[in-house]
Amino acid sequence: MLCVSAALLTACASTPETHYYTLEAVSSAPISQTATVKKPLVGIGPLNLPALLDRQQIVTRAQNNSLQMAEFDQWAAPLQDNAIAVVSKNVSALLPNAIVRAYPWSVYGNVDYRVIVDITRFDSQLGKSAILEASWAIMAEKNHTVISNGQTAIKQPLTDTSYFSATQALSKLLAGLSRQLALAVVEVQQK
């Protein structure tokens, strides 16, 4: 009995510690906008991520189109929720003359513009790079028509093979996407 207890205690003591990560908004200088009497209401979302990323483990790419799920390096919150919050915060910082809300924004009333984002790739290969590929559209909420759309493909090199480096790079990728979205909103407003 003592041997079994000692073996169980040894096994428990050698289990690696799980690390939890979040994406973070990245500070950027605001984009210049023409001042308007009424601040436009910009809704970010829905934002879709590939189904293979819909898990707590951080997913990375490996050789030969294979994927790795990190058992001890995980997202602290659902990745989709974290990503839309970060994009909304980034766009809000870039557009100080606008009111930006994350989807669902029904609590705040209607929005003037809806920015729909479909991310098709959002992952990294440890030690190499992180990649974001997405298509997006800006819709005038009043008449539900698409008034602008585009594609984004951004690559961010990684400084090392750590998951910390990978999550930092993914945050930078979202900052790049946010900047493109904010510029598109400014262009729409100027038309």
Can you give keywords for this protein?
3 helices; 191 residues; Rossmann fold; elongated; single chain; alpha/beta
Characterization of this structure:
With 191 residues, the protein is α/β, with parallel strands linked by helices. The chain has a single domain, classed as 3-Layer(aba) Sandwich (Rossmann fold). Helices cover 29% and strands 35% of the residues. The protein contains 3 helices and 8 strands; from the N terminus they run H-E-E-E-E-H-E-E-E-E-H. It has helices at 2-13, 79-94, 163-190, and strands spanning 19-21, 41-48, 57-61, 67-75, 99-102, 113-125, 129-140, 145-157. The strands form 2 sheets. The protein has a 5-stranded mixed beta sheet, with helices on one face. The protein has a 3-stranded mixed beta sheet with strand order 1-4-3, covered by helices on one side.
List the helices and strands and how they pair.
Blueprint: H1 2-13, E1 19-21, E2 41-48, E3 57-61, E4 67-75, H2 79-94, E5 99-102, E6 113-125, E7 129-140, E8 145-157, H3 163-190
Parallel strand pairs: 1-4, 2-5, 2-6
Antiparallel strand pairs: 3-4, 6-7, 7-8
